[in-house]
Amino acid sequence: MAKEKFRDPRGAHLRIYWSIVDSPAWFALNFSQRALYIACRRKLTSNFNGNLAFTHAGLAAQGFAVSTSTLASGLRALQAVGLIAVTREGGKVNRGQAIPTLYRFTVEDCHEWVKLHIPSSKASNEWRQFATVEAATSAINAADTQARTSHAEATAERAKRNAEKNSPIRNSKRDGSKFKAVPIRNSKPGAISGFENQSVSDVRQNAGMPVQ
Fold first, then answer.
1. CB 130 within 8 A of CB 28
2. What stretches in the chain show pLDDT beneath 50?
3. What three-state secondary structure class fits 202?
4. pTM for this one?
5. What are phi and psi of 137, to 5 degrees?
């Protein structure tokens, strides 16, 4: 007879092992980042690891209302100390549609998501690699530095593209491609304005008028 699966009469719950909360990786996190980890764990079910989106709107609906920059910094810190890992990068897709980044908790097995091109994997527990709080803190600082550098480079690239787009030289080239100047046809000297080159007496004579 198959053993019936135990069900907690108090309902579902989230579990954080002592090995995590006593680790250097955990000690390196600030209180906001630890709270974020707990809020993210609320989204984990028995078979959903690897297909977890920690979006600003989703977390705000749980009551975890923080700024987008704080959320990005917190997720970056959790990645840096190896508590979570990215399974699919988010960003813009066809027609500018945005897709969220997906994550897995490294302390749990990751299930396969064929349509999302996410393979299954065993718990990797990267957070265990940090022997000291200093090493974990350095990893967080390095991730922050890299993020700032990438943001500055992206900002400079956007500014460069905008400057090129609004450049007077480029606009003049664009205008020149639409409107072509028509060259003046060469004429013989004196033939361009023949009337002006005639004397008053010649005009009167040609018109049959008496010449004074």
1. yes
2. 179, 191-193, 195-197, 200, 203
3. helix
4. 0.72
5. -65, -40
